[in-house]
Amino acid sequence: MKHPLPLIWRMIPEKYYLMGSHCATCKNDFFPFRQICPNCRRLGKVSEKRMPTTGTVYSFTEVSAPPSGFEFEVPYPLAIIELDNKVKILAQIIDAPMEKIRIGSRVQMRFRRVGDDDEESAISYGYKFALIEDAASSAKTDKPAKTPKPTVSKG
Amino acid sequence: MVHAGIAGYGVYVPYMRIKIPEIAKVWGKDGDKAARGLGVYEKALGAIDEDSATFAVEAGRRAFEHCKLDPARVEAVYVGSESKPYAVKPTASIVAEALGSTPHLTAADFEFACKAGTAGIQACMGLCIAQMIDLGLAIGSDAAQGRPNDALEMTAGAGAAAYVISAKKEEQIATIEKTYSYTTDTPDFWRRSHAEFPMHAGRFTAEPAYFKHVAECAREIMKRTGTKPEDFDYFVPHQPNGKFPVRVAKLLGFTEAQVKPALVTPFIGNTYSAAAMIGLSAILDIAKPGQRILVTSYGSGAGSDGFIITVNDLIDQKRPAKARHFFELINNKTYVDYATYAKHRRKIKSM
Ligand SMILES: [Zn+2]
């Protein structure tokens, strides 16, 4: 994916540390950042808020026909992740074979290159997610995952 | 005098490994013999979407997860690497932004082959001791480069280590009592501006380069502090392979028991700027209050940074989570073959 430089730069807070927004009126979090609360409209009081960096896999699929910039990463898992504040985001899952990913798997944000432009452009960095078993510990999670088998994956 | 010390540390090693015999096989070499000769069994490599900046960010995050201090307090970030993603543009600013340390800080990238990260620790120490800053971050990070079918290809690993350096005694899990460096102009290893892979001077990299600088640095720092090898519980030299650190330890009068727990290169390869710093992390994972550590990094070109570190009581209350200990975290891995390795290291020209 060819990202124009101003866009890469403007999206740094969102891409580097999940900067989203919070509405003080309805107490909801939003990601990506929203200027106006979709619930409260004019009555919303919106401010910047960092999203939690851990969550669970809500659903996932395997991408084999990627957008440009991701050609060398296929096949790769792409997931909807429900962050610990219930906000859902779409992100790649890294460092895990498909068969280890489950709906309900705990995941943690990681910092990676996202899409790769040509060699002379600025590099775009951003969030991807890794399984927590794998990100932090194989020692701590010796029990097999009790999460249900995926039902809405492999789209 | 204010002493600077380590408030927290974090290590990142990427997920993929390649066994040394798998590399040797491609070039018609005896793999087991090569692995035995180098004392390296396997090496870590980053994925296609990783580079020394992403390693540095992960190590930095883990360092703050460990010390539980506020990254916004950091007033200096130094990243040492010889595999920067940009030729011109700092990695340190990427790290500072990702960790939430911007904008009130100084940041720069350091370059001195494999000792650029420890040079960053010294810079942070200086600022702490001068009371110009309270908290600094020094990182050594490399996705090490080795030309296909070069001896370096067998050992060039990948990883990063980050150290949060504090001026406040009450935040230090270990205090750095003394630092000293030994530097000469010795062209044992280099990479010219637009070259893709580094060159090295073969056997010349050993005696007049690694052994001389590491040994001289260790001897001089001990002389200046009136210490002897038996005054230290651990010795952590730079480790370009599994053999050199053991040999230099013996040469200096250290026992194998003092150096062995610090050997990380046999399991992840030579992580260049990160090597001595990851070795130190493996020691801090197990060190007890009151123990003393001598660290001597090495950077081709050439120089060695020495540190005498004393472990404080705080270390017992502030251990990283077990899963973050070096010898735990390296168990999260997957093995790849040479073709996959080549793809991820972008050795295929059309990529
Ligand atoms: Zn609202």
Q: Shape of chain B, please?
A: globular
CATH architecture term of the largest domain in chain A = Beta Barrel
Distance between the termini of chain A: 22 Å
The number of E-state strands of chain A comes to: 8
Strand order of the largest sheet of chain A: 4-5-6-8-7
Order of helices and strands of chain B: EEHHEHEHEHEEEEEHEHHHHEEHHEH
The average pLDDT of chain B is 94
Task: Give Rg of chain B in angstroms.
Answer: 19 Å
Count the helices of chain A. How many? 3
Major sheet of chain A = 5 strands, mixed, barrel
- State the low-pLDDT regions of chain B, or none: none
The helical percent of chain A reads 10-25%
In spatial order, strands of the major sheet of chain B run 5-4-6-7-1-8-13-12-11
What is the CATH superfamily classification of the largest domain in chain B? Thiolase/Chalcone synthase
CATH topology of the largest domain in chain B: Peroxisomal Thiolase, Chain A, domain 1
Textual characterization of the structure:
Chain A has a 5-stranded mixed barrel with strand order 4-5-6-8-7. Chain A has a 3-stranded antiparallel sheet with strand order 2-1-3. In chain A, 10% of the residues lie in helices and 34% in strands. Chain A is globular and about 45 Å long. The model of chain A is unreliable at 135-155 (pLDDT under 50). With 155 residues, chain A is mainly beta. Chain A folds into 2 domains: 1-13 and 53-135, OB fold (Dihydrolipoamide Acetyltransferase, E2P); 19-51, no CATH class. By secondary structure, chain B is of the alpha/beta class. Chain B folds into 2 domains: 5-173 and 318-344, Thiolase/Chalcone synthase (Peroxisomal Thiolase, Chain A, domain 1), CATH 3.40.47; 178-316, Peroxisomal Thiolase, Chain A, domain 1 (3-Layer(aba) Sandwich). Chain B is 33% helix and 24% strand. Chain B contains 13 helices and 14 strands. In chain B, the strands form 3 sheets. In chain B, strands 5-4-6-7-1-8-13-12-11 form a 9-stranded mixed sheet, with helices on both faces. In chain B, strands 3-2-14 form a 3-stranded mixed sheet. Chain B is globular. The N and C termini of chain B lie far apart (54 Å). The mean pLDDT of chain B is 94. Chains A and B meet through helix 2 and strand 7 of A and helix 3 and helix 4 of B.
